[in-house]
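Second opinion, please. Pick holes in both lines of this record:
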Amino acid sequence: MSSNFLEIEDVTFTASKKNKVNNVSFGIKKEGEIVCLLGPSGIGKTTILRTIAGLQNLQSGKIILKGNIISSPDYNLEPEKRNIALCFQDNSLFPHYNVIDNINIGAQRNKNSKFNYTDSDLIDILHLRGLQEKYPHEISAGEAQRVSLARSLMSKPDLLLLDEPFSNIDQSLKDELQKKIKEILKKLNITTIVVTHDSYEAFYFADKCGIILEQSLKQFDTPYNIYHYPNSTKIVKFLNRGTLIKAEVTGKNTLRNAELGTIKGNFIKKQSVGSSVQLLIQPEDLEHDDKSDLKLKVVDRKFRGTNFIYTLKTKNNQFIPIFVHSHHEHQHKIKEEFGIKTPIYVDHLVCF
């Protein structure tokens, strides 16, 4: 039997023929860890949460929580006996209860828990003050989502499942709530699985991330490793944080691209000299240099507050992103030439 807090063993999560995720295996080692499942909408992420919560049966594999099997093809522990809280993306509040009563249903569910927050604390944290006596039909979708989150937290579950928890919340409030909710989860040691299509959200919350594409779990690792060491071109394209350029391996830690010239660094995987590869270039890999002889044309510019991300175009129609601090004295315009520092050095060379 697994010693992990939660173990998903070779499970196929199925809602329909089109909506399923095949042969999924991953574990949560310690209580209090946060895992984010990241993938496009409609890929089957919610089906995974519903099955872990016991709302859908398994056809293959096992789900083990705290050393006990809670789901298998021939056994399905009742949802109410799992001490798992599922916070849905859509409004799942009881329509005949007001906000405060909906929240306190969670507290009634697990009266013996050592939860250190009162309903009043969560009302303030989640900006619900003044809504306590209102009913679900009288509040917005974002407010209903926050009420559902408060109810789930009040139940102090062994495992908390959050389905796109901030999807209906304005960006200005979202940043604040993400910080506060993460603090609560870590302070109370609540093991959590968050489903999202937002990579920024996933990378902020998660101790580990799972990338789900094409009905399978493609990679399960730390956010840092998934970003810097993606294991396939499909993940590179999904995250959209870089570009793949053609290059030839010319030495132990050296490549050459027809337009960028020699590129040095450290290969993540051993490459054969003379082989042709696709090299991942991310915005922070290249350095800007106004005095460089290597110049490309600017075709796009995105302002991110602390930085700009310029998109440069080569003569062979290759588009390359590059990060520049927003305090850089020269802001380049579209169609201007943009210098890249040479020789190019990329610390970790990820090739496919």
